[in-house]
């Protein structure tokens, strides 16, 4: 039974991580596109750099969530 709860928690955390990566990468791309349009004469590298920063932030948050889940601090067992 504990493995079922663990699997559900893992799936939920992984789903949050994937959503976080998508949202933060898209946000970084939007910010990079804005910087590119207004300051850098439509270069492409700020868009990709913004996406990279967003993915990096999301991966860091995901890593922190997975460590908390591993140590049982994110979702305490409900019994």
TrEMBL record:
Main location: mitochondrion
Compartment list: Mitochondrion inner membrane
Transmembrane stretches, start-end: 21-40
Keyword terms of this UniProt record: Membrane, Mitochondrion, Mitochondrion inner membrane, Transmembrane, Transmembrane helix
Gene Ontology annotations for the cellular component aspect, listed alphabetically: MICOS complex
Pfam families on file: DUF543
Membrane topology value: Single-pass membrane protein
Signal peptide limits: none
Family to which this protein belongs: Belongs to the MICOS complex subunit Mic10 family.
Subunit structure: Component of the mitochondrial contact site and cristae organizing system (MICOS) complex.
Main function: Component of the MICOS complex, a large protein complex of the mitochondrial inner membrane that plays crucial roles in the maintenance of crista junctions, inner membrane architecture, and formation of contact sites to the outer membrane.
Protein name (Swiss-Prot/TrEMBL): MICOS complex subunit MIC10
Organism of provenance: Drosophila pseudoobscura pseudoobscura (Fruit fly)
Source taxonomy: Eukaryota, Metazoa, Ecdysozoa, Arthropoda, Hexapoda
